[in-house]
Amino acid sequence: MTKEDKILLTARYVEGDMNSFEQYEYELRLKNEPDLNEHLKDYKEIHENFRLQLPLIASQQSFFPPRTQNTKHYRVEEPDVLPVKSILKWFLAIAAGIMTVFLIWAPWNTNLYRSYAYYEKIGVPKSFLGDTVAMHKAVYLYNNGSYLLSSHLLAAQHIKNPDNAELAYAYSNTLIETAHLLEAREILETVVARNADVKYFAEYSMALSYVREDNATEAKIWLDKIPKLTKAYPVAAELRSHL
User: Which of 8, 18, 196, 222 is the most buried (most CB within 10 A)?
Assistant: First the structure.
């Protein structure tokens, strides 16, 4: 089992997303796997930090908060709210696992993708079916760049709300970041087809999924769909110029 598998397993355990047998099996493993204990300790620290931050972020009403003006730096700014030690531990563990898989799996233009991997910050949807606290936690992790952990939570909400285009858009972005590109594209296709408010951001994410695997031809096709005078156009045009 890889590090990222153990991190996801720990997330499921803490979030109460296991049946009684899985919980029993996980607790048995804790006795013999020191690294699993470390993952549990770190996740609980993040869990507690989120609980303390909840009163500050619970006031978010719309799914997409107002954007701040960006220039050439298209990555979402990451609030400095988590303990530095936890951030380093989790990000290094996730990065190590993902990088190993990627280097074996397929080539891609790392620098170009990382430079233009821009995703809109999200807020809690105005109306959705599911666990409000879990949704707030998913938003918190997503906006802090913890795509692997937020993917687990967003997946559960997406299953309960398959017609929510904004939720589908955010979940797809976590799939792109964690290299589940085919699944991400299937979901993004439905978002684009609905002609939702996030249609052009979804088209940009679709292009990014092809940049990730170094397929400039397909990336250009999706970037060329984004009209001028839309919020997604400036970054799309700049990325297009580098392909």
Answer: 222
Helices (H) and strands (E) in the chain, counts: 12, 0
Residue 200 near residue 227 (C-beta atoms within 8 A)? yes
Positive or negative torsion for Cα 122, 126, 127, 129: positive
Single-letter code of the amino acid located at 12: R
The DSSP secondary-structure symbol of 82 reads S
User: Model's pTM, two decimal places?
Assistant: 0.61
Read off the pLDDT of residues 93-118 as tens digits, 9 standing for 90 and up.
555 554 444 443 444 445 788 888 88
3-state helix, strand and coil shares in percent for the chain, rounded to the nearest 5: 65, 0, 35
Q: What's the CA gap between 147 and 161, in Å, rounded? A: 19
Let me know: does 62 contact 106? Beta carbons within 8 Å: no
Question: Where are the domain boundaries for CATH 1.25.40.10 in the chain?
Answer: 107-243
DSSP symbol at 65: P
Phi, psi of 215 (to 5 degrees): -110, 85
What is the assigned CATH class of domain 107-243? mainly alpha
